[in-house]
Structure formats: structure tokens, C-alpha cells
Amino acid sequence: MAQKKRGEINEGKNNAEFIRWFSKSGMKDNSLLGKKGANLGELYNLKLPVPDGFIVTTEAYTNFLNSSKIDEKIKSILDGLDVGNDETVLSASKKIKELILNSEFPEELKEEIVDSYQILGTNKIEIEKGSARDILNNATEPIFVSVRSSVDFKTPKENSQREQSTYLNVKGNDEVLEQVKKSFSSLFNPETIKRELKNGIDKLKIAVVVEKMIDSEKSGIIFSKDSSGKTIINSIWGLGEGMKIKNSFPDIYVLSEEFKIMDIKKGEKNFFLRRDSSGSLKNSKSSEERKNSQVLNNYEIQRLGNFAQKIESHFERPQKIEFAIDDAGIHILQSEDYDFADDKKESVKETSTEALSSIKDKVNIEKVEEVTKTKLKLFIDSPKLTDTGHKSGLKKVGVLKIEKIIKESGKHPLYFLESNRLKDYEDLIYAGIKKIIDEFEEVSVMTSDFLSDEFSDLEFGKKFYEKNPLLGVHGIRFGLKYPLILESELNAIKRASEKANVSILLPNLIAVEELQKVRKILNKIKFDDVKVGIVMETPAAVQIIKEFCAEGIDSILINSERLIQNLLSVDKENEQVLELFNFLHPSFLYQIEYLIRVSRRNNIKTNIFGSPTENEDFLKYIIQKGIDFISVYPTEARKISDKISSIEGEIFHGTDKEPRKYEMKKEKEEYIENSKEDLQKNLERDLKLIEEEKKEYLKETGGD
Fold first, then answer.
1. Opening angle at CA 659, ends 656 and 661, nearest 5
2. Which terminus of the chain is more exposed, N or C, with fewer CB under 10 A?
3. For 430-483, what is each residue's pLDDT tens digit?
4. DSSP three-state, residue 378
């Protein structure tokens, strides 16, 4: 290759442009670079502190398909594909991915990607002074980079998982090439095929961003403007992927429009992610001093606010901005358009349930209005969600978890057992759940189900160590291992149930014998008459659902996230396998359908919760199969209710499954809280509808 300086390693065969550096990129090049790549170019050229990088362009992607002669094979697979058939779409996706992953890069493209990666790892002064060949000959240790997909179409907000792949801590020529190829293949994930194929296969293209990784000491997300004009910053220790760690909560900083710090909420940052020398992500426990200490100093907070204003001003829309901080200072990793009002779920998720109470005035929780055949209940995992639960209008709690109530004591359940203070444990749980039970007409309380690593920071928590907590002693296993602890929890629920309609849920059962042992405890404490439901979260439990029904249960609750993780052997917190976390995997759909079918045959009500229910295709599937209830966070209730109403209108309209209007109106009084004025209006409507039905009936029967 002729000697070239940086920025010149980008001309491929037939004048195709394979590589584009950030310094030469911008929004005008969306079709070549994808939105993420173009955005990074804009930020870089605004002189913001963006880590250096380059984009493997859509022309490189097209060249790869053409040179490996798989473009026509892909077209033939997609030609005439029935996108309404999940199985055929999944099959097509798998075939195309195999074609891409088994094909070789053309030599010229391979060389340009490798050369660009090696240049990225050299000193900036050297780059400006030397030729490309000189630089490559003197390249030092390969650097870590992130490899991120970049497309020119927008993924719908309701999709809870990113459709195209991202790979972090990638190091070495071969690894970079492999992850670029995997990113190419992720263009043909099932959700993307189903939505984008209608626009034509020739428009389905992808670019790939290769950017220096920042081994951050601190990281986080900025929402440049919320509904009241304030800037919200969430920040944690370590790498940004740590935002996904359960039971570890970010700091929240609120800035006025003039960048005055209005509020600081310090989160309990129990764990953080770091990178080891091999590039693997390590989940590490925070020290006692660090977990409750403030992450950002005042200078960093205000500096980030300034960056957010500059970025928002440039793009002329509110932005969601990712940042990282290391010894060199603040780095802006990416930015995308963001509307706080239209995307409440994401902001609430990233600021944690604990933080919801501090921002609830900024999140407009809309009341459920539709009455549907498939009913909604609330999912509440903290007493702090009681007020927001009421705002949804729903009267029934399908899942009430008690782990956060326990955790607020600062003590592990084993502390109460070993110090002979189980009555205190019972009182703690009773006080926590009574606040919620008193406010709703019906509540299902789940006995404790915590992973040992989530409680390790509590007093006595270190006594219970496991290498793989998800497959360890949690749920009913823990309760039966320590039956006095379980008995205390059941006693607390019994006390709270004296003036309310309360049932219990038993998590992580895999054997009928476990249910029988719990019933003996219920008999011992004279709580036999309580309704008992079991939580389905393992394939083992699904396989013996008939035996559970025969033993006598009142309901089943499907923990969709746990079930799909256990079924597919995929950790949804692991970026390396996230693309395999497929809500529409045939085996998962079959398990769901089987549970619903067997339960209906035995007159047992079915309930489900978890992120898969936010996926519209999955939601449609479970509605068609006859799920009875879906339990949702208060913030999601109105949105999912509207989706259910739309889906039911599509699949039930004109059939005998379509409810009569006046029946639905009457049901609203039982299902959703109404004001007295609403109740009067509903009554008048119901009477009118009944009268119309009566006249129609008399007309059809000749007055008989």
C-alpha cells in the first residue's frame, strides 16, 4: 500500500470508501456512517472530548457482501419471506448470520480495518509526523476498543433491548475483525428483518464504529433536559455497563438551566464494573467508604452540564449523553436524541426504583383508561412505589417483592436467625408490606428471593457466599433451608392479611415436595386458607406444571426474564451474549404457551411479568394464547394497557371473544379506581347500553 497519512487510509476498490475517521465525519454522511457514527463525528468536530476512532462504512459492508458472493444468497433467503411468521423469520436470521460469519473479508478491506486499528493505537504526534507505514512498523501494544453497530434507521422506543450488537474491550487485529463481522451479522436480527424488510433489502445497510475504550474511574448518563427544563446526571463508579447491576444505584444530580446544582441524591453503589488485564469485565464490590460516597465533584457536575448544553444546542433537541471519566478527564462517548416525556421508562430504569421517588414529579404517570380482556396488575418492589401505583388507577398488585424491605434494615435474614431475633424480622416485613396492602384491594406477596451476592454487603451477608448465585440457594430453596426464616415471612404476611385480600407467591420451585413442605408450615401457623401461587422461572418447573396443578395451587406467575435466561443459558447482563436474549425464541414461546394451556385446563389463573412483556410481538403472542394477567411497573401501566387494547381490537374484533360493551364498562368499576363522577357516568352508560341490548334482543326474538 502506498504511504499515506491518517485520514487517507479510506479509498477502496472502485473508489469505495471503507474507512472514515471521526475527524472527517458528520451528520451529512448518515447513509455512509449510520446515525451513531455520524453523531460521533459531529461531537468530535465540535472539539468535545470524544475518544478517537473510525467508522467501517456501509460501503465496506456492501463490499464485504459482494466480494464474498453472499449478497444474492441473502436476497434469495429474504425474497418473499413471511415476516408475520416468527419461525420463518428466525430461520432466515440464523441462515444469513451463518453466511456472514463463515465468509472471509476481502483482503483490501481486511487490510484497511487492521491498519486503521493499529494507527488508532499510536501517539497522535507520531501520526501527524510519520507516514502510515512508519507508524505501523513502530506500533506498540494493541489497544482496547469498543466495536459498536451504527445504522441509519431508528429502533422503536418500546424495544427494551438494542437490536444491533455492541462489543466492549476488544483487543487485537483478529478480535477487531471478528467483532466487525458480528456487528454486520446483527443487521439481520429477527426484529430488524420484520420491521425493515418492507423498505427493501438494498436499503438495509450497517456501518461499524471502532472507538478507543476508556478505562473509566467514573461514568454515567446525562439527560440534557427533562420536562421541566432541568439537566439530570446519573453517575456511578467504574465502567458505564455497571448501570445494569442489580441492587446498585447511581448518584443523581439535578442542575437548573443556569447549571446551578439544585439537588444531589447519593445512591448506594454496592458494586462497580472494572476491566482486568485480559479485557474481561469484573463485577467488584465497593468498599464501605466508597459505596455511599459522592461520585462526581462539583466541577465535574457543572462541566458535564456545560457539555450537555453545547451538545443539545448543536443538535437542537434534548440529548441522552454517555460519558466516562479517567485520569485524563471527562470523555463524551456518544449522544442521541432523547425526549423525557416520551421515554419515561428508560429514565426511570437508569435512575433505579429507589430514585423514582426523587424524580416522580418529573414523570407523568398516566391513569389506565381502557378495560381489556387481558388484565393488568401492578408490580411493586419497593414501598416507595405505592403513591405512583395509585396514580396508575389500578387496584390490584400482582407482585409485591419484599427484598428491599429487608435490605433497608442493613441486616441479612441470617442475622435475625442466628441472633434469635426472628420476631424483629417478622415485624420488619409486616410493617413494610402493610403500607402497601392497606392501599390496594388485592395483593400477592412473594416470599423472599434474593441472590446471595446482592445481600453480601449486609450484616451476616458474607456468611452466605456462592460462586454462581443465580443457580444457588435462593427463593424457596433458601426458605426451606432455613424454615424459621420462611415461617417468619409467612407470619408477617398472615398478620397483614387480616383485613385485606392477600395471597402468597413461592419463587424458584422445581419440585412438588417443596410445595408440600411450605403447606406444612402454613398449617403450623394456621394460615392454610391463604391462596398459594407458584413462580415459574425454570424449565424444570414448567415440565411438572401438571403435577403442581394436581397438588393444588391457585395461580402461577411467570418470571419471564428468569425463565428465558435459564432456558437459553444466557446472562442478560453480559454484553457478549446479549444478542442471544431473544424474546421470540421458539423454545421460550412454547414454554409460555404450554404453561397457559395447562393452567387454563385446570382453571388456574396465569400472570406474567418482566421485560419481554414490553415487546409488542411477545405481548401479542401471550394475549393470543390467553394469558389472564400482566404485572407491570406503575410507569408502564398506561402504555401497555393501550397496547393491549389495540392488539385485542385487532385479534378479537368480530369474534365471540370480543366482550360486550356494557360488560366492559361495568368491569371498569372493579378494575380501575374511579371518581364518584366517573362512576355515575359509567352507571348511566351501562344502563343505556343494557336498554339498547334489551331492545335489540326483543326485536330479534319477536318480543318473546
1. 130
2. C
3. 999 998 888 898 999 999 998 887 777 678 877 777 778 888 899 999 999 999
4. strand
Instruction: Please give the pLDDT value at position 51.
Output: 93
Q: Write the CATH number for 257.
A: 3.30.470.20
Pair 231, 141 in one domain? no
Beta bridge partners of 447: none
Is 437 inside any structural domain?
yes
Buried residues in 506-532 as b, exposed as e (16+ CB within 10 A): bbbbbeeebbeebeebbeeeebeebeb
The pTM of the whole model exceeds 0.70: no
Quickly state the pLDDT bin for 158 (edges 50, 70, 90). Answer: very low
In 502-538, which ranges are continuous DSSP H helix?
512-524
CB 286 within 8 A of CB 272: yes
Cα 666 to chain center, whole Å? 35
* Residue 162 pLDDT: 53
- % of the chain exceeding 70 in pLDDT: 80
Is residue 688 domain-resident?
Answer: no
Q: Domain range holding 261?
A: 218-345
Q: How far apart are CA 21 and CA 14, in angstroms?
A: 20
Same structural domain for residues 192 and 60?
A: yes
Helix (H, G, I), strand (E, B) or coil at 359: helix
Same domain, 164 and 249: no
Between CA 600 and CA 593 the distance in angstroms is 11
List, for residues 618-661, the tens digit of each pLDDT value: 999 999 999 999 999 888 889 899 999 999 988 877 666 665 55
List alpha helices for 130-210, DSSP H.
132-137, 173-185, 190-196
* 156 and 248 part of one domain: no
One-letter amino acid for residue 683 of the chain: L
Q: Which residues of 372-390 are buried (b: 16+ CB within 10 A; e: fewer)?
A: bbbbbbbbbbbbbbbebbb
* CATH number of 491's domain: 3.20.20.60
Taking the C-alpha atoms of residue 224 and residue 559, their distance in angstroms, rounded to an integer, is 35
Query: What distance, in Å, lies between the first and last C-alpha atoms of the chain?
Result: 94
- Tens digit of pLDDT for each residue in 590-599? 999 999 999 9
Q: Which of 161, 191, 212 is the last residue of a domain?
A: 212
Together in a domain, 42 and 138: yes
At a CB cut-off of 8 Å and minimum separation 6, what does 543 contact?
A: none
Which range (102-106, 475-479, 692-696) has the least confidence? 692-696
Overall domain count for the chain = 3
481 shares its domain with 522: yes
Domain final position from 187, 212, 237: 212
SS3 202: helix
